[in-house]
Design brief:
two-stranded antiparallel ribbon; mainly alpha
């Protein structure tokens, strides 16, 4: 994933309304703009702008069916961020915690010998 693509994903996820929209689309695959707008007290145009940001970031995919656009979640960008950030930092903490565990066990063994 290119850095500018990752920036777009983080920017899209930074807004609570867009995160909520992503949850709605995830829970109702194939929903349209009106279905999503029914959950918010903002204009349909505002909902469409938020969906545009999500779509630009690659977090939602739209498909035109007649006059409707149907939305589905695309999990690939989130998975890529997870692998890039969470996995690397989890490994860092796992190594540090294992080191602490071994030190405590070694200290306890020394204490029992005395």
């Amino acid at each position: 994933m290119k850095p500018e693509s990752m920036d777009a994903v983080f920017q899209a996820l930074a807004h609570k309304t867009r995160r909520r929209m992503l949850d709605i689309v995830r829970n109702s695959p194939g929903c349209n703009v009106n279905d999503i707008a029914a959950h918010f007290e903002v204009s349909r145009i505002a909902v469409m702008k938020h969906l545009g940001v999500l779509e630009t970031a690659g977090l939602v995919i739209s498909e035109k069916k007649g006059r409707d656009r149907r939305f589905r979640v695309n999990t690939v960008p989130i998975r890529m961020i997870y692998e890039r950030w969470t996995t690397a930092y989890s490994a860092l903490w796992a190594g540090a915690l294992t080191d602490i565990k071994y030190r405590i066990e070694a200290k306890n063994r020394k204490g029992k010998r005395k």
